[in-house]
Amino acid sequence: FYEHRRSSVVLNLPGLEVFPGDLLVSDGAADYLCHPLLLLNSESKKPRWPFSKRGVGKDKHKHISDLENCLSSVKITSFRGYDFYGLKDKTWDEVLETHHKLPTDQLDLKKQQEAVWELFTSECTYFLDHLLVLKMIFMNTLKYLQTREYLLDVDLWRLFANLEELTQTSLGFVNSLFGIIKDYVDASEISSSLDFISVLTKYFRGSLCQSHQTYCLNYSAAIFYLESLRQRDDFGIYLKWCEQNEQCRRLHLPELLVAPLQRLTRYPLLLKNIWKRSMDSAEKIMIYSIKEKVEKSIRDLEGKVKWLDNFQKFRYLQEIIVWPPLWDRDKRFFIPECLKHIFKEHTAENILSPTNRHLLYEGKLTLAESTRFLDVYLFLFNDFLLVTKTKRNKKKLGGSDPGLMCPSLTPELQAVIKEGGSCTVLDQPIPLDRLVVKSIEPLHVSVFGLRNAFLIQHENRYRQCIAAFLLQAQTENIKKTWMAQITTAISCFTKSQETKKISLFTLPAESSEI
């Protein structure tokens, strides 16, 4: 027995009472309509019934108005309180002149001091104009709004990662450099020198590179998360308010978020500049070793980013690629229901494992069948080719959270995931050593309306063709790219297999009697 008089949904059994204006529904529909999640969920993007929109516009307008009022109460502290604030735009000569310090008569030493000064002023700019703006204007404002129960679902870590740690580390580095520079210009002895080696060693061999690595690993996901958030009205108002602050210097949030990546890659250049202008051999060795450590940190980061991106991508591929059972894949095979348990398929997790293989190329093509053209999506791995049929969910039931999606996925796959669709495997994977690709001349297929066509053949171990796919690319260039990618992949796979065979037959432990 269900009764919801206010929503005009009535199911009254037995007796079947009907009232004017009531909506008659089946038992299953009544269960669905009266589900507590449906009745209580205020975050649903698309209301189920037109009359449920009553009052939504007013509530939304009030929420936006309250958010704007809350933002108007936010106060941003001035950045001018830092002792080094006024130094970032000065030259080394101007600083010496201000402190009545005579410049050294050694030209090489002066050039070294100027190189250290460039490291210091650029770090000041990085801290004041980028990190501090991100923290004080964007992150702290978002924290303030969340204490007032606005934008509660926005994840601070996914957007800003370890910005707090990065800001503290950079501030410590700036203050340490400022300290040795102040000691030098305040010293009465002309022969005193900048003791910068200890500062460089402490920070570059300490937390400076590590904190940047942590931030950079999250960067691509943060940018993708930001793009999904910008579609929201409330986040758009917050973002516009922050970016209009004069301390942003007309920089937008994406331009500020990329600053730590740019800074990390600039450190080796600044250190190299100091190394080139140093004359003491022991000092040069120390600076060079620090520079090498920073460069190694960047190389490690590139490897981590590639590995992490590859891992995330394969995780999404495992979710989106559907492997139909044998009897669904090929109607020639009849398998009684009582025997289907025998044909237990290997799980897709084993086939699509990021530790076993790499995705070399992918894209959308058209497959010519006997009576129709079919949209297909091809995945070229380092050891096989996979032909799949894209299936979109027309009802668009939600799909994955776009903020959680892997940024390196192609727009076509992103659209499929958002719509809750899938890529169904059309045939078994084609091993590259069993694959033949042939270009098709327009003369042979133009009568069928095919252009930019090429043929994929799957051969068995006896070199008999067991499957063939006549594919059409959007342009001639795309066709040539696909054929080149497949040909290169086949060549690389063949060479790797030959290398494995050679190493197998040349094992030192192999018995001569075998």
Automatic annotation (TrEMBL):
The DH domain, residue ranges: 111-311
Which SUPFAM superfamilies does this UniProt record tie to the protein?
DBL homology domain (DH-domain) (SSF48065), PH domain-like (SSF50729)
- Gene3D superfamilies noted in UniProt: Dbl homology (DH) domain, Pleckstrin-homology domain (PH domain)/Phosphotyrosine-binding domain (PTB)
Q: Which GO terms describe its biological process?
A: Rho protein signal transduction
Please give the superkingdom of this protein's source: Eukaryota
Boundaries of each PH domain copy? 358-491
- GO MF, any single term: guanyl-nucleotide exchange factor activity
**Name of the protein:** Pleckstrin homology and RhoGEF domain containing G7
Naturally occurring in which organism (per UniProt): Pan paniscus (Pygmy chimpanzee)
